[in-house]
């Protein structure tokens, strides 16, 4: 059986005390000569010594970890969002613990408790929660600062917002400019707050533009590519000229479903998405959508939560990031 290299083994090889090794590896190397620091670090690499995480956490009084809770790890939008958190977090010495809730408030609650149990320093929540004030109580009672992504925030919470209501209005304005009067909408049965705002903005502007969206043109499916495939036949039977999918995953599935039926997008039916995930520009035709800067969203979230970890008394932070229309080839103009 291979024996794990310990800090004692490293100290013996370096001919220094365990305390000296511990302090050098915990960022207090200015107390020692350059020769001693170089020797310890060289031997650490040679011997493959990895410091014990729990021991370092006790020394620092911080595990330098951030819990990250997203609704779906398979969604490309959240993959890019997580990359942003990782990039900024690592630049500041923090490691993200990433959890996927599968859009379940119960699973989300379980992982928040796990973040507390594993002594995370802060929490970024971009997932479904049943009662935000209850979450506030749970995390604050355990001294865990948190930040919400596109969620209704309690009085003391931090938040990064993506202008979902305005984005919905942008979709309506664009479809109106393109001459569409019979518009279908695809949503999911359990709308999170950000999707509620997106839909509300769209419906409000459609009413202002005097373009009715009757109930028979509002379709419900899973928030996934397969959900788009599954609902495509029912949408085609209703004969809209364009479909607004509440996210790009559904839109890409719709494109596949219509294609399997022998239809041409946008000649037979147009599709409008939302999110601008990386696949959107590679579909045929490329998807017209609303761009949400997922990577920057993750970077901003990581920056704000680390600031909160370092300064608990700072005033609540509410950052709104810009969105924009990305026009490609999936929506035709009706003359």
TrEMBL record:
Domain of life, per lineage: Bacteria
Residue ranges constituting the HTH lacI-type domain according to the UniProt record: 5-60
InterPro entries assigned: Cro/C1-type_HTH, HTH_LacI, LacI/GalR-like_sensor, Lambda_DNA-bd_dom_sf, Peripla_BP_I
Keywords: DNA-binding, Repressor, Transcription, Transcription regulation
Gene3D superfamilies (UniProt xref): 3.40.50.2300, lambda repressor-like DNA-binding domains
SMART domains (alphabetical): HTH_LACI (SM00354)
UniProt-recorded name of the protein: Sugar-binding domain protein
GO molecular function, one term: transcription cis-regulatory region binding
């Amino acid at each position: 059986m291979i024996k794990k290299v310990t800090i004692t083994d490293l100290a013996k090889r370096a001919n220094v005390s365990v305390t000296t090794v511990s302090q050098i590896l915990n960022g207090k190397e200015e107390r020692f000569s350059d020769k001693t620091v170089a020797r310890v670090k060289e031997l650490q690499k040679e011997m493959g010594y990895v410091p014990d995480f729990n021991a370092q956490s006790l020394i620092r009084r911080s595990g330098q970890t951030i819990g990250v809770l997203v609704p779906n790890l398979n969604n490309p939008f959240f993959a890019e969002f997580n990359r942003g958190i990782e990039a900024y977090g690592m630049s500041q010495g923090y490691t993200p613990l990433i959890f996927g809730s599968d859009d379940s408030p119960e699973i989300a609650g379980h992982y928040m408790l796990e973040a507390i149990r594993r002594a995370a320093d802060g929490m970024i929540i971009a997932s479904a929660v049943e009662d935000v004030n209850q979450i506030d109580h749970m995390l604050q009672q355990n001294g865990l600062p948190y930040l919400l992504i596109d969620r209704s925030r309690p009085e003391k919470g931090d938040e990064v917002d993506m202008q979902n209501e305005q984005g919905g209005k942008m979709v309506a304005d664009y479809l109106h400019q393109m001459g569409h009067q019979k518009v279908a909408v695809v949503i999911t049965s359990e709308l999170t707050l950000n999707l509620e705002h997106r839909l509300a903005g769209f419906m409000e502007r459609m009413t202002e533009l005097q373009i009715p969206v009757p109930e028979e043109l509002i379709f419900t499916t899973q928030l996934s590519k397969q959900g788009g495939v599954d609902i495509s036949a029912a949408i085609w039977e209703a004969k809209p000229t364009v479909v607004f999918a509440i996210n790009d995953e559904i839109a890409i599935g719709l494109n596949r479903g219509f294609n399997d039926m022998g239809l041409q997008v946008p000649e037979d039916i147009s599709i409008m998405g939302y999110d601008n995930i990386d696949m959107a520009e590679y579909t045929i035709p490329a998807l017209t959508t609303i761009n949400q800067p997922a990577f920057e969203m993750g970077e901003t979230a990581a920056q704000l939560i680390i600031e909160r970890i370092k300064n608990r008394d700072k005033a609540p932070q509410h950052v709104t990031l810009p969105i924009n229309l990305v026009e490609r080839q999936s929506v035709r103009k009706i003359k």
